[in-house]
Automatic annotation (TrEMBL):
Transmembrane segments: none annotated. This is Puromycin-sensitive aminopeptidase. Belongs to the peptidase M1 family. Its cofactor is Zn(2+). The lineage of its organism: Eukaryota, Viridiplantae, Streptophyta, Embryophyta, Tracheophyta. It catalyses: Release of an N-terminal amino acid, preferentially alanine, from a wide range of peptides, amides and arylamides. It comes from the Eukaryota. Residues 477-512 form the Peptidase M1 alanyl aminopeptidase Ig-like fold domain. Residues 21-185 form the Aminopeptidase N-like N-terminal domain. SUPFAM superfamilies: Leukotriene A4 hydrolase N-terminal domain (SSF63737), Metalloproteases ('zincins'), catalytic domain (SSF55486). InterPro entries: Aminopeptidase_N-like_N, Aminopeptidase_N-like_N_sf, PepN_Ig-like_sf, Peptidase_M1, Peptidase_M1_dom, Peptidase_M1_pepN, Peptidase_M1_pepN_C, Peptidase_M1_pepN_C_sf.
């Protein structure tokens, strides 16, 4: 496999001006005709034109109407090379046949009977021979011809300019996209779909038709997605001054699709990310839909109108767009709770990745398969970098920066430096060193020491950092720009308690000398909601780690009464937002705690965390029962903050109560399950019951399946709940799930529900007998034959193997070695397995 380096970037020798595509979609074969106007970058250039192409059968190639003979070009499994094209502009025409059997979810493929495409990052080369790189921006037309009965709906990017019937029961449609775009934003959909229609009037008074296309029986479940789309369109106008630019915006929903895709005016989504009803989707699903519909829509400006020069710049569009969707969700819900959720995610996935062999900078220096770089580093850490620009410049300065960025670069393919320059130039800002955030891997560690001088009445904060980040500031904030830096505060009557890194203003690990009392004070009083939560989490992590040592020494486990008191105060504080309370009384995840250990011990962490949960439930039983009773849902489901917050608190309390053994509580939890009127309550109660093995668990799981077996999205929840379970020896149950009639390895959602779920259970995936590792290792090879992108996602489960004890290390390493040396392993899987072994 060939490694590609950022430093080797070269401008293309040829640009493409217009691209006219014509698809004849058939059951046996699909024929693609491409007519491309080619313009040399430098007039008179004598260079071969290298076109990418995979799994294609070339039928003919013409230049300026003349068919080329075999000696005029080279053809291999990945390229068509025109050896000596004319020395000026010319028309290139190719006819190709596309491989019909395609389970890779890339290029043109069938999803439950409908044709759809996925071209990012490098899928367009599976559709036709092309310079498949994002700096080739062209205007496209697309003619689609297909059987009218089988494929009544024919969609592509832009505007529909012509349609009609053809002989033999066929019909056609011609789409024209007036905006230049890279080929990764091309899309085609053909199938039996129906649409939910609505309109949005833009800030300049233009009416945009909005259509969400789904299979007919799913249409009722697209209401929330339509609400989300309209909210996103309005928010982007209000907050970023970005108006939608066409008269039509289509969203297509298909079951077999990896995530979601921002194709110009034709976004495509996996069903899970669009379809919702109160009975079948939880609050978390509703919130995720809002975020992802917003995310793909926001790409219209950050990604589509201004795109990436090359795939190393991926975070230019993804980091910025994640930041935009985070802000959108914050503005529509609770800012503090959203921030807590985003930071927890960053710490759980990105920090852990950044501390292991899969660490890479937000802008990687090299890759084998770019598909492997759609990571939490590019997305979530990238968003934190964008957030820092805003922290440094303030809202107005940041807006000036984005305005300048769009003005300068509309219609261009640009780099992270271009974004940086727009921020700097719009504000005359001094951003020295800031670009290091793009090129350094790893999480900086900032150490802070405080001291108070009674006589001088000064308080000083001394910061030192091991990987130098370089924030700066406009407001009253401390800019730590050097390896070591001290800030002194004067005229203070007593030693203050600093609230540092408020709102989590930089993606770093902060080690402070705050005492436990300081932390309890911040937990009770900090005016920054994020830091209030953070104080509780630091205390909880310390508590768990102390008890882990006790557990390892076989000593008795104890729970600090001051901690119980702190949790009780939060629980009973009626001035607090209920969703915040739910977050604040939730203990840090097992992964986060293990990240802090020299040698990760999943059994000890699980045992201690479970002990603390149960002990809290015992000591605060009545308070939890009250919270359940006070916050029961009304009959009608509302997706608004007040109601979501009530449900979050009630269900968190229920989870605690379910850890108890007594009859009364078991009955309470079961009743909550039976009387639930929406999926949030029903599923939370099921999850609470399923924590403990036994008949109640088996019965509830069977009941839930019988209720919902007709709805595959709900069944996926059922699958992942079981596979993620921490009950002892769960690997055997998970193996059985693979044989369950509802499971299908070729379906991405089902696969991730089961495997994604399983690896989330630290005790079972890292079982000391190696059974979890072997199960996942075998599955990787099976999956790799079907879909290398999905398989490489699964291999990454092993990447932190060296964090565990010797026995586990050897077992995990053996699986990686087996994968690397397996016959015919894909580049995707090979790259991740090899890097994990490094
Ligand atoms: N920009 C999209 C990325 C994406 C993707 C990448 C690789 C393989 C399959 C994919 N499906 C979608 C989605 C986004 O981040 O907005
Ligand atoms: Zn994106």
């Amino acid at each position: 496999p060939k490694e590609i380096f950022l430093k080797d970037y070269k401008l293309p020798d040829y640009y493409f001006d217009t691209v006219d595509l014509s698809f004849s979609l058939g059951e046996e074969k699909t024929i693609v005709c491409a007519k491309i106007s080619v313009v040399p970058r430098v007039d008179g250039i004598a260079a071969p034109l290298v076109l990418d192409g995979i799994d294609l059968k070339l039928i003919s190639v013409k230049i300026n109407g003349n068919e080329l003979k075999e000696g005029d070009y080279d053809l291999d499994a990945r390229h068509l090379i025109l050896k000596a094209p004319p020395r000026g502009s010319f028309i290139l025409e190719t006819v190709t046949e596309v491989l019909q059997k395609n389970s890779s979810f890339e290029g043109l493929y069938k999803s439950s009977g409908n044709f759809c495409t996925q071209c990012e990052a490098e899928g367009f080369r599976k559709i036709t021979y092309f310079q498949d790189r994002p700096d080739i921006m062209a205007k496209y037309t697309c003619r689609i011809e297909a059987d009218k009965l089988l494929y009544p709906v024919l969609l592509s990017n832009g505007k529909l300019i012509e349609q009609g019937d053809l002989e033999g029961g066929k019909h056609f449609a011609v789409w024209e996209d007036p905006f230049k775009k890279p080929c990764y934003l091309f899309a085609l959909v053909a199938g039996q779909l129906e649409s939910r229609d609505d309109t949005f009037t833009t800030c300049s008074g233009r009416e945009v038709a909005l259509r969400i296309w789904t299979s007919p029986h799913d249409l009722p479940k697209s209401e929330h997605a339509m609400y989300s789309l309209k909210a996103a369109m309005k928010w982007d106008e209000d907050v970023f001054g970005r108006e939608y630019d066409l008269d039509l915006f289509n969203i297509v929903v298909v079951p077999d699709f990896l995530g979601a895709m921002e194709n110009k005016s034709l976004n495509i989504f996996n069903s899970k990310l669009v379809l919702a009803s109160p009975e079948t989707a939880s609050d978390a699903d509703y919130a995720a839909i809002l975020g992802v519909i917003g995310h793909e829509y926001f790409h219209n400006w950050t990604g589509n109108r201004v795109t990436c020069r090359d795939w190393f710049q991926l975070s230019l569009k993804e980091g910025l767009t994640v930041f935009r969707d985070q802000e959108f969700s914050s503005d529509l819900g609770s800012r503090t709770v959203k921030r807590i959720g985003d930071v927890s995610k960053l710490r759980t996935y990105q920090f852990s990745r950044d501390a292991g062999p899969m660490a890479h900078p937000v802008r990687p220096h090299s890759y084998i398969k770019v598909d492997n770089f759609y990571t939490s580093t590019v997305y979530e850490k990238g968003a934190e970098i964008v957030r820092m620009y805003k922290t440094l410049l303030g809202s107005e300065g940041f807006r000036k920066g984005t305005d300048l960025y769009f003005k300068r670069h509309d219609g261009q393919a640009v780099t992270c430096e271009d974004f940086f320059a727009a921020m700097r130039d719009a504000n005359n800002a001094d951003f020295a060193n800031f670009l290091l955030w793009y090129s350094q891997a790893g999480t900086p560690i900032v150490e802070v020491k405080s001291s108070y001088n009674v006589e001088a009445r000064t308080f000083s904060l001394k910061f030192s950092q091991t990987v130098p980040p370089t924030p700066a500031c406009l407001h009253y904030c401390l800019r730590v720009t050097k390896g070591e830096e001290e800030f002194v505060f004067h005229d203070l009557d007593e030693k203050p308690i600093p609230s540092l890194l408020r709102g989590y203003s930089a993606p770093i690990r902060l080690h402070s000398d705050l005492t436990e009392n300081n932390l309890f004070f911040l937990l009770a009083h900090d005016s920054d909601g994020f830091n209030r939560w953070e104080a509780g989490q630091i205390l909880a992590r310390k508590l768990v780690l102390t008890q882990v040592v006790n557990f390892q020494k076989d000593d008795k486990l104890v729970l600090d009464p001051q901690f119980v008191h702190g949790i009780k105060c939060i629980l009973l504080d009626s001035s607090l937002d209920k969703e915040f309370i739910a977050k604040a009384i939730t203990l840090p995840g097992e992964g986060e705690i293990m990240d802090m250990m020299e040698v990760a011990d999943p059994d000890a962490v699980h045992a201690v965390r479970s002990f603390i949960r149960k002990q809290l439930a015992l000591e605060l039983k009545q308070e939890f029962i009250n919270k359940v009773k006070e916050n029961r849902s009304s009959e009608k489901y509302e997706f608004d903050h007040v109601n979501m917050a009530r449900r979050a608190l009630k269900n968190t309390a229920l989870g605690y109560l379910a850890t108890l053994e007594d009859e009364e509580n078991s009955e309470l939890v079961l009743n909550e399950y039976k009387s639930a009127t929406n999926m949030t309550d029903q599923f939370s109660a099921l999850a609470a019951i399923a924590q403990k093995p036994g008949k109640a668990r088996e019965d509830a799981l069977a009941d839930f399946y019988n209720k919902w077996k007709h709805d595959f999205l709900v069944v996926n929840k059922w699958l992942s709940l079981q596979s993620a379970s921490d009950i002892p020896g769960n690997v055997e149950n998970v193996k059985k799930l693979l044989d369950h009639p509802s499971f299908d390895l070729t379906n991405a959602n089902k696969m991730f529900s089961v495997i994604g779920g399983f690896r989330a259970s630290y005790v079972n995936f890292h079982a000391k007998d190696g059974s979890g590792y072997k199960f996942v290792g075998d599955l990787v090879l099976l999956l790799d034959k079907l879909n290398p992108q999905m398989a490489s996602g699964v291999v990454s489960s092993f990447s932190r193997w060296n964090r565990y004890d010797d026995t586990r290390q050897n077992l995990a390493k053996a699986q990686l070695e087996m994968i690397v040396s397996a016959n015919g392993v894909s580049e995707n899987v090979y790259e991740i397995a090899l890097k994990s072994l490094a």
